[in-house]
Structure formats: structure tokens, C-alpha cells
Sequence to fold (265 residues):
Amino acid sequence: MKNLDYKYLSNSAIEPLFLCGDYYNLLQELPDLCIDIAMTSPPYWGKREYDNEDSIKLEKDYNNYIRNLLNVFKEVYRVLKPAGSFWLNIRDSYQCKNLLGIPWRVALRMCDEQSLILRNSVVWNMVKGAPDNSADKLRNVHGDLFRFVKAKKYYSDISMARKEPHKAKVQNGAVVSATGVTGVRYKRQIELSAVLSDEQKTSALLALEDILKQVRDGSLGDFRMIIRGQQCTTHSDSTKVSGRAKELETKGFYFLKYITLMVLK
Fold:
């Protein structure tokens, strides 16, 4: 990155440029006002176990977590063009049973301290959400997606957001989701599994049939099935910090559900 070729920035050819390295150092190498849109989903505070113990997310105090994020976002502000947008996906955390309100703490400080304008607050409906063993509260099944801009006049073309419904179809008697998932491969993996018990196999097959029925009748847009011994767990393998890892250990499977009705194109 030290000798980054900035000729790319003035090149009219649309080709992807992938930069790999430490996020903060990479941002510092970029010139001012060179980015049209930035989007990130930083590690959620205290939620997952990562290999790198020094990066953002494992601070003992959530205030330090917020401060570290703001240091990064200050650089994002610098490289963002005046007409650009910055999208931030972030979820909340608990401490001593107290829901901390981290997404809004971050968003308000970005407005107050970094002169960003909060243009949209989008609720990400996760349909299923993470499993929750707490008996004294409801599950959290949404995330926050914020859109920030630098100036009152910025680039936006809502007419380009053309809405189309998810469409499932039936091919050779099998239900096919909008992205081509049929369930045939999952069924075969369940039947041939050497790590699932007979009871878990029966439960997994019934659950898969129910999911496919939801896709067929249009109440679910798409899905992925995570089966123990077949697919990698999402986020973390630790049952201490991941409800999905715990569900995989106890049930042998879980689903990632994708909401139906509308997608943006």
C-alpha cells in the first residue's frame, strides 16, 4: 500500500480493486475525498471469539469499543466524497443484563462529533435471529443499518431501486428457491451423516421439509441449512459466545432464513 498506484482513481475502466491489509492503515493511505460509498459491518462488541485478540470488539469497556470505532470512521469521513454515503451495519450487546444501545450511541456520536448527517435508520429483519437461552427476555431478531452522508446535497437515485418479488419454482418435482437452493443436497447430507443421531436426522429432515414448504408458498424467500459435520458454522464455533454453535451442537443443524416479498435491483 505504501506505493499505491492512484492512477486507478482516474481510470474510466470499471474494474475491481482489492486492497488487503489493516483497515486503519489502508484508510490512511487513501487520498482525501476519493470514495463514493463506504459500507462496513464491524465486529459486534463482546459477541464473538476471533483469532486476533487485539482488534476491535474485545475491549473490556464498551466505551472504548465505541471510541475505537469512531477513530476508524474519522478516516472514512476524510476519504468520503462530499456527495458520498456511508452505510454502517451494527448490532447491540448486553452487559449485566442491560441492553447497552450501542448502535445508537455510535450513530449519535458520529453526528455530534464527526459532522455526519444520519439520513436513514433501516431495521434489518433477520427473521429467525440468533437462538437465545434467556428465560426472562425476548429474542433480538433485528440489526441496525444506518446511512450517513457528509452534506445536505448528496447522490441518491431512488428510481434505481426497482422492487421485484422473490420467485420460487418447481423443477423435476423439487422446490427451487430464488437463488437455486433445492434442498436435495441437504437431504442427502442428512441421510448420509455419520455424526447425527437417528433422532437428529429425523428432526432435520422434517425441519427441511417445513422450510421448503415455506419457500414453495412464498412466505420465505430463501434459506441456507447448516448441518453439523457438513457446513462451517457462521461467525464462531464457540458455544460460549455463539447461540448458533450451541444449536448446532444440540440439534445438529440450524437454518439461515432470508425474508421474502421484495429485493432491490
Observations:
- Residues 198-217 form the longest helix (20 residues).
- DSSP finds six helices and twelve strands in the chain.
